[in-house]
Every structure is written in C-alpha cells, then in structure tokens.
Amino acid sequence: MEMTEKPRILVVDDDKMIREGCERILARMGCEVATAPNGEVALRTLEGASFSVVLLDLMMPGIEGFKVLTLIRQFWPDILVIVITGYATIETAIEAMKRGAYGFIPKPFEGDQLRVMVGRAIERKQLKEDVRRMEQERQKTLQDLDAEKSRTRSVVLAMPDGVAVTDPEGVVVLMNPAFLRLLSLEPSRRPGEPISAYLPDAELCRQLLEVSRGRLDDPTQGISYEFSPREEKFLLAHMTPVLSETGECRGAVTVLVDVTHLKALDRIKSAFVAQVSHELRSPLSTIHQQLAVVLNELVAEVPEEQRNILARAKEKTLGLIALIGDLLDLSRIEAGVHLKEPKPIALEELLKGVVDFLFARAKGRQQTLTLELPQEKLPLVDGDPLALESVFGNLITNAINYTQDGGEIRVRAARDGGQIRVAVQDNGIGIEEKHLAKIFERFYRVKNEKTRAITGTGLGLSIVKGIVDGLGGSISVESRPGAGSTFTVSLPPSRSSG
Fold first, then answer.
1. Global pTM?
2. What is the pLDDT of residues 65-85, one digit of tens each?
3. Distance (Å, rounded) from C-alpha 245 to C-alpha 243?
C-alpha cells in the first residue's frame, strides 16, 4: 500500500446498521470502505482486492467469526483484524488476541472508539510499510554516497515523529521539524546546542548523555523514557546509540512519539476496570461468605454430594475475587500508582514479613520455607512497600503452589555488584523451556497434568514484571521440569544509599 493511496477497510457484520454506520465514520476519515454481511462474502471480497484493515464481527450466520479470523491470518497475514462483537468477555478478547487479532471493540461502541482504534491500525500498517520500503532501500547498492546521505536526511526531516541526533558530548547535530513541534519550540531553532537547551526534562537529558557516550550494559539496545513537556501532553523518548563498524559509540538517535491519546485511553480503561471490579467484588465476597457459612455451620444438614458442589462454588468465587484483585493491581501499575511516591525500603525487613506471613501456608503442606540474608546489611531500595510485598508474595506463593508436599523453598537475598538480587528457589514441578518466554505474559498459564488442579488467574507474574520494570529492575527465571524453578529479581539500590 503506497502512502498516497486511501486506506482500504473491509467491514464484516450481519447487522446492516453497523455496516452502514462504520462506513460513514470511516469514509469521513478518508478511508475507502467495503462491506460484507457474512464470512463467505468477506473471504471472496478479500480475494479480489487489497485491504489494510478488517473490522470483523464474531457472531454471524455461516462461517463464524473466529474461523474467518484464522483464514485471514493464514492467507492475508499483513491485514490487521479488529474484532467487533456484542458478546464481549475477557475470554473472548483473550481468544481473539491469541488468534492474531490486532484489536478488540465491544458493542455498542462510540464513533470515537472506532476512529481511535482504526486510526492506530492504519498508522501501524503504514509504519510497517515504511520500514519495509526503507529496508529495501537499505539493501540496494548505492553508487553515490552523498545522494544517500541527502536521502536519509530528507526522510528524517519528513518523519511525523520527532527525531534528534546527538554527538558523544550530547550536542544536537540534526533534528527534524516534528522534534521542535512536539516540544513547542520555535521552528527557526537550529542544531548546535546541548540537548538540555531543547529538552525540558533533566533526567531525560542525563540518560540521553549516557546513551550518547555508549554507557549502556548492552550498547546495541536503546532505552525509553516517558515525560511531560507541559500539562496534558505526554511524549515517549526512545534513545538508541549510533555505533561505528568497530562498535565505537558515535552518539545517539532520539525519537519522540506523542502518546497523549494513549494516556487518555489508558485512563478511561483504568477507570472502567476499577468501577467494574468494585461493583463485582462486593457481591462475590458476600456469596463467598454465605457459602462458607453453609459449609461450616450447616454441614450436618447438607448431603455430601451437595457439599461438594458448594465447596466447588466457594473455590470458584474465591478465584473470581482473586482475578478482580489482579485486574485492579494491573490497572494501578499501568496508571503508575505504585511509583508516584517511592520511598527507601529495607528489603530484609520486608522479606522477613512476607516469609513469616506465608510460613503457615508452606507448613500446612509440610514444606520447608527458609530466608537467607547476607551478614552485611543490604542497601535500601526505592519503591512502594505494598508493591514490593506483592512482588515477593506472588513469587513465594507460586513456589508453594507448584511444589509438591514436603518440598523445599528458599528465599535468598544478596548484593551482586551494583544490584540487589532476591532469588526464590523451589524444587517443585518446574517449567518446560518452551513456556519460559511466555510466563510473564498476561493470562498465560502452563497447562499440563501436574498444573491442572492448581487454580490461578495467569496475571500474577505479569503483575510482578510490571512492578519490577517500573522500579528500574529486572526479573529472570531458570527452570527444569522435575527439578524446580528459580525466579531472580534484580533491583537498583536507593539513590539515598549513595
């Protein structure tokens, strides 16, 4: 798809009003729109034309939506599919994403929701095409090096995202108009000054200077930093070192992306999750308590078969309450609540409290739970105590759940160079290598005969990773089936520790 062409959108829905409404909204966005009342017509339409985005209903006569989604991903993998459905559930959304959907919009939806989602899909499609074309250009043998430099400069100047190139001393040597526009600087500003003269955020300038000088653990990787140059304006800066053929750092490239609209969507989503979770948690807690009363106080009057049913219902309500709690935790992480007021924390005392709290649970399964601390006092770490308790509570609880009765769980804390490392090690069932790269994804759970009876939401490790990443740390895992697992959290020391 060339940039000069109109984006082509296919709307697939058995509801004529939905098709016509989407067509009107998308046409006003400058899109060329085609419609199909069912899956069969949609597939025939796709065979005869090139489309960028497909809006796909799941519940239709004939071929059902998930089957259409699968066929699109198989035969037209470059098309981005946005699922629209009136049967919106968490399970449906997860299944759609697993099958390759780009986005998910529950019915009924507002025109703004449709415009935002489709607009982002079109931007992503165009960006992928730009990257593909630029990669093709890069592969070509250029006869005139000066012409290539001029072409690259023209591309940089024309990019919609802000771009600035700095030398090893942090002096700006190249920037495009979008960079000045995003920072509300005068269009007449020229390169040649230190980056601090253009960027209002001191921490961003410090990090960029480090990148420009090649002071990264892995110089081939960049870093990202989010900041707000003014009220209600949010930018994401991604800084990447510029390396010579010998690996020497020659400076850095900084790309600024406006994420203000994404922040607004995140606030709406977080408010929605919090409201729905609050409305669900109270009645579920009441149901759980009432089931407990029936099972504990009326046990003699309830037949055994019915007691089993009630016990299962009690277990399921507890699982739903846990899921709601995890969703609220994720909402707070995405909103940055756990980082708003970090304070220095003594990790030894925090770990002792978590281990003491979970000791009875481990003892109930005849497991050994031990905490090993270094003789020398560990440096403080910056963070929210409740967030860090959630991190280590999740990891130790997982170790208890996935370790057989009579097993051993060890929590070890130590200083390793410039980091504080906490390892949670067990000798439980372990994790197959094929799962290790995915276990930190939301809702991902390892399912096999040994884990089928273990309840969980699949959100615990994603919550842990979100908190640890937000604190500037990292988490890793080593595991072998039948030999147990070791999760290691690395955190930077508090700035107040010197």
1. 0.44
2. 889 999 998 999 889 999 888
3. 7
Sorted by sequence, the CB contacts under 8 Å of residue 153 that are 6+ apart come out as 174
- The pair of three-digit structure tokens given for residue 210, joined into one six-digit string: 């480090």
Distance, in Å, from the CA atom of 11 to the CA atom of 353, rounded to the nearest integer, reads: 55
Strand bridging mode 162-166 / 249-258: antiparallel
Token pair, residue 34, equals 């085609």
For 235-255, how does the pLDDT look when each residue is reduced to its tens digit (9 = 90+)? Answer: 999 998 888 778 788 888 899
Amino acid, single-letter form, for residue 488? T
Give me the sign of the Cα torsion angle 201, 202, 206, 209.
positive
Instruction: Say how far apart CA 149 and CA 224 lie, in whole Å.
Output: 27
Beta bridge partners of 330: none
Quote the CA–CA distance of 98 and 370 in Å, as a whole number.
Answer: 39
Q: CA nearest 249: which of 213, 202, 292?
A: 213
Nearest-angstrom CA–CA distance, 327 and 322: 9
Cα–Cα distance for residue pair 73/99, rounded to 1 Å: 8
For 6: left if phi > 0, alpha if psi spans -120 to 50, otherwise beta; the answer is beta
